Sequence to fold (107 residues):
Amino acid sequence: MENACQVQTTLPDRSTAMRIGRELVERGPAACFQIAGPITSIYRWQGEVHGEREWLCLIKVSPSAHARLVEMLRGLHTYEVPEILTLSCRAEDDYRLWMEESSRQEE
Fold:
């Protein structure tokens, strides 16, 4: 049974990822924001194939704070159509409790 969420997004540079990650953790919904990269993304946009350097971000959030996190991420994201993928998963009890405590609901 799922009791945790991981949200995945990509951002254009490390400084943007650091800024957004810090805000999501400081303001509450994200328990943890991990930044990996750079990676190379190859994708189709407006009929053309592009290849860009990006930073992969993995965000840990409790299910109860997920909607707020997605709303905030959309507002902070720099892309016209941001990648926001949510993976439901099972966290062990001690990690789940930490995520719930860290995924504050207040602003």
In short: The longest strand covers residues 32-45. The chain is about 35% helix and 40% strand. The radius of gyration is 14 Å.
